[in-house]
Amino acid sequence: MNRHIFALQQVARRTISSSVRRQVDNKVPQKQKMFQEDNGMPVHLKGGTSDALLYRTTMALTVLGTGYVVYELVKAAFPQKKD
To answer: For residue 51, which of 33, 36, 47, 67 is within the disulfide window of CB 3.0 to 4.6 Å?
Structure first.
């Protein structure tokens, strides 16, 4: 039993240590240039369409949530009369 576990550990070590590392491009300087250029856009929208979509979704949820809170406050402030 122990021999099987030891053999499995050796195989696992060999496959992990002999795996080829992939080179990842460093995109940080390009992103820094994109976010630091002065083009009149707010920084939270410089990421492209995904940032604009996230911003609009957040704003819509905020407005809807605020409207719902105001509705509930008005409903609580003026309860319906029971006849």
So the answer is: 47
Centre a 10 Å sphere on the Cβ of residue 52 and count the other Cβ atoms it contains.
14
Residue range of the domain that includes 54: 42-77
> What percentage of the chain exceeds 70 in pLDDT?
88
Number of domains in the chain: 1
Q: Is residue 66 part of a domain?
A: yes
Backbone angles phi, psi at 32, to 5 degrees: -60, -45
State the Cα–Cα distance between residues 6 and 10, nearest whole angstrom: 6
- H/E element, 14: helix 2-17
Q: Tens of pLDDT along 38-61?
A: 988 888 888 889 999 999 999 999
